[in-house]
Design a protein that fits this description.
The complex is a heterodimer of chains A (about 70) and B (about 260).
Chain A (H helix, E strand, L loop, with lengths): L1 H4 L2 E6 L2 E6 L2 E2 H7 L8 E4 L2 E2 L9 E2 L4 E9 L2
Parallel strand pairs in A: 1-7
Antiparallel strand pairs in A: 1-2, 3-6, 4-5, 4-7
Chain B lengths: L5 E3 L2 E3 L3 E3 L7 H11 L3 E8 L20 E4 L7 H15 L3 E4 L12 H13 L3 E6 L3 H9 L6 E2 L13 H10 L5 E3 L5 H9 L4 E4 L1 H4 L4 H21 L21
Helix pairs in contact in B: 1-8, 2-3, 4-5, 6-8
The chains are: A mainly beta (about 70), B alpha/beta (about 260).
């Protein structure tokens, strides 16, 4: 039962394989990674998410997630 | 508002110098250089967050977004698809629909792939972006970009980071003559005279990063660039004298002593 409630999800995060305990939302994923949601943008399976939807968007097994922020550039 | 401001997509700017955020030795130097430049628009890049090292501070800690307009770029993208994805991410990260659109076609020169650039411009304009494409100094390509809905065109002066200065002054003049949208000379500036020349040719603004960030004293160079852009603009408005092959004396040729 515990297994079913909190099983490991295999996702691809920024190009790398990652196992996370799920189910979880994008907001929860950011929390777990200690990333400030206000400073990043997230692409979920090639769809860029509005920040307001982070809390409602479920990360599923096999999902592809990109988390980006601004860095110095010209 | 000063009468000599310029407008992109309904937004008016007083400063005609746009600056980047890359390659600075420290955030503190960058902040001071931005202040010294007087710029109102600042470019930033969009990159994956480093998941394994979250200790790094955010670039946004050092940019007062109430003071500066952020211009996310798509630097490093080699296809229209990559650039479009990056632009969409930049829009969400910065909550602004402005993008400096780059689609690179060659690694050594970082020259744009104009075909892919046009394609990405069309898509992003349809999605409501204010698209400022970085392009070669080709008047025909600039015209096509404008027809595709670009809010400005940004021809290069020379390859990115090369510091070679304006390589084809004539093309910049022709692009200015052809364009109904602002022309921003982007890339290739090495020192203040290059920025002044770009403005003297009629450019509406100049965008640079390395020329300031890579200078021995970036803060002093930022101020030099601010003054150069102002001087060049003023000279353009003042109207320079025609070039002549031979001398034309400034002092009277009559009334010389002993003649």
């Amino acid at each position: 039962m515990c297994d079913k409630m909190n099983r490991g999800l295999q996702i691809t995060l920024n190009g790398d394989r990652l196992e996370v305990a799920g189910p979880l939302t994008v907001s929860e994923l950011l929390d777990r990674l200690e990333i400030d949601a206000r400073r990043v943008a997230v692409e979920h399976n090639l769809v860029v998410l509005k920040r307001a939807t982070f809390g409602d968007t479920l990360v599923r097994d096999g999902d592809q997630v990109e988390i980006v922020n601004f860095v110095g550039g010209g | 508002m000063t009468p000599d401001s310029f407008t992109i997509a309904g937004k008016t700017f007083t400063s005609r110098l746009l600056v980047g955020t890359g390659k600075y030795s420290s955030p503190a130097v960058m902040v001071k250089a931005h202040e010294a430049s007087g710029a109102e628009m600042i470019t930033v890049a969009v990159r994956r967050v480093n998941i394994s090292d979250r200790s790094k501070e955010s670039l946004l800690d050092y940019i007062d977004t109430s003071k500066y307009t952020l211009l996310p770029n798509t630097a490093g993208c080699y296809t229209a698809d990559e650039a479009i994805r990056t632009a969409r991410l930049g829009r969400e990260a910065g909550l602004s629909n402005w993008v400096k659109l780059e689609v690179i076609g060659d690694e050594r020169t970082l020259f744009p792939d104009n075909e892919a650039l046009l394609e990405a411009t069309r898509v992003l304009v349809r999605e409501g972006f204010v698209v400022l494409p970085y392009t070669t100094d080709d008047p025909v390509v600039c015209r096509k970009l404008e027809e595709a809905g670009a809010a400005a065109v940004m021809p290069l002066g020379a390859p990115i980071g090369s510091g070679l200065g304006i390589q084809n002054a004539n093309n910049i003049r022709i692009i200015r003559e052809f364009s109904r949208v602002p022309v921003i000379v982007d890339a290739g500036v090495g020192t203040a005279s290059d920025a002044a020349l770009a403005m003297e040719l009629g450019a509406d603004a100049v965008l640079m990063n390395t020329a300031i960030a890579g200078a021995q004293d970036p803060i002093a160079m930022a101020e030099a660039m601010k003054l150069a852009v102002q001087a060049g603009r003023l000279a353009y408005l003042a109207g320079r004298i025609p070039r002549k092959m031979y001398a034309n004396a400034s002092s009277p040729v009559e009334g010389l002593v002993g003649r």
